[in-house]
Specification:
By secondary structure, the chain is mostly beta strands. The chain has one domain (2-181): Sandwich (Immunoglobulin-like), CATH 2.60.40. The chain has one helix and 13 strands. The strands form two sheets. Strands 2, 5, 6, 7, 8, 11, 12 and 13 form an eight-stranded antiparallel beta sheet that branches. Strands 1-3-4-10-9 form a five-stranded antiparallel beta sheet. A hairpin with a 5-residue loop joins strand 5 (64-71) and strand 6. The mean pLDDT is 91.
C-alpha cells in the first residue's frame, strides 16, 4: 500500500489539520482503494449528514475527497467525488474542464467512513477496469485531492500536486501518481 501526503493550498490555510494522507492500493482484479486519512482537531470540520449511498452533484462544495484519472497523453479524464455522507459522483471530461458529462458506472463506488475527534478516515473503492478500458488502457495517472469545509463555511483545498495560482484540481500538472506506482495488494476482491 502506497501512502501519499496531501498538502494544503497556501491561499486556503487550515490550521486544524496537522496531517492528511491517502493510502492507495489496487488488485489484479481491477479494484482501486483510496484510503483518505485526516488527522488533527476535527471538531471544526463540517461533515455532511450520512445518507444512503447514491450519486449526487456538487459534492465538492463541502467536505469531499476526490480523485482524477487520466491516460498519459490523452485529453479526456474522469473525476471521482467521494463524500463523507457516502454520496458519490463520477464525471467524464473531454478535455481540461470542458465537455463534462455525468457517468453512471456499471459498478458504483463504495465509501466507508470512520470519524473520531482527531481522525477521519474515508475509504473509497472503485473498479478500475471500467475506466481504464474507456481511457484505452493507456499509461494511467491519478490526481488526488480533497476539499475540507470548516464549521464557519471556509474551505481549504488539499492536493498531492498543484499548478501555480489558485486551487485547480483539474490541471494536468496535478496528475502526479502513476498507477504503476501502486503495487497490487491482497485483501481487496
Amino acid at each position: 500500500m502506497l501512502a501519499i501526503a496531501l498538502t494544503c493550498h497556501p491561499a486556503t490555510p487550515c490550521e486544524r489539520i496537522r496531517r492528511f494522507t491517502v493510502q492507495a492500493s489496487r488488485t489484479a482484479g481491477g479494484l482501486l482503494a483510496l484510503h483518505y486519512v485526516i488527522e488533527g482537531d476535527l471538531a471544526d470540520v463540517r461533515l455532511p449528514e450520512s445518507r444512503p449511498p447514491r450519486r449526487a452533484d456538487e459534492l465538492w462544495l463541502h467536505t469531499c475527497c476526490e480523485a482524477f484519472l487520466a491516460g498519459r497523453g490523452r485529453e479526456s479524464y474522469y473525476e471521482f467525488n467521494f463524500a463523507p455522507s457516502t454520496e458519490w459522483a463520477v464525471y467524464r471530461f473531454d478535455a481540461y474542464r470542458t465537455g463534462r458529462t455525468v457517468v453512471e458506472p456499471i459498478e458504483r463506488p463504495t465509501i466507508t467512513l470512520r470519524a473520531g475527534a482527531d481522525r477521519l478516515e474515508l475509504e473509497a473503492v472503485v473498479r478500475l477496469t471500467e475506466w481504464s478500458t474507456a481511457l484505452g488502457a493507456a499509461d494511467l495517472w491519478l490526481a488526488l485531492s480533497a476539499v475540507i469545509e470548516e464549521q464557519n463555511g471556509q474551505c481549504s483545498y488539499w492536493a498531492l500536486r498543484r499548478p501555480p495560482g489558485p486551487p485547480d484540481f483539474h490541471h494536468p500538472d496535478c496528475f502526479a501518481l502513476s498507477l504503476d506506482q501502486i503495487a497490487p495488494a491482497s485483501g481487496l476482491t
